[in-house]
Specification:
This protein is mainly α. The protein is built from four helices and no strands.
């Protein structure tokens, strides 16, 4: 004869409980469900908090990188404008390169494009 399945055995055992034992059993189930729900809620809150922190960190890093990139681009544009003014004053490419820290190739490219 085959052994009874665990679920069937458990159901049979539950049916044999007294009313007091049944109430204790139900209370245990409610408590377990409550704990599981709390853990699930805390897990969701943890994920949400983690996402928020990650988003904030990403935004701050992106903003910082954007500011740095913008400043570098602004400095380069200023150098280019300065180099063009020096070239308009008939300074040599070598002198403009020395004063602006631009390469001769960059200065020649500026001359061609303007």
């Amino acid at each position: 004869m085959a052994a009874a399945k665990p679920k069937v055995r458990a159901k049979a055992e539950i049916k044999q409980l007294t009313s007091t034992e049944m109430e204790t059993y139900r209370e245990s189930l409610r408590h377990n469900n409550f704990l599981r729900d709390m853990a699930s809620c805390e897990q969701r809150e943890g994920r949400s908090e983690g996402r928020s922190e990650g988003l904030m960190e990403g935004l701050l890093k992106g903003r910082s990188e954007g500011i740095t990139e913008g400043l570098m681009k602004g400095r380069m544009e200023e150098r280019n404008l300065f180099a063009l003014r020096l070239l308009q004053k008939k300074m040599s490419i070598d002198d403009v390169a020395a004063l602006t820290d631009l390469t001769k190739e960059q200065i020649q490219k500026l001359q061609k494009n303007n």
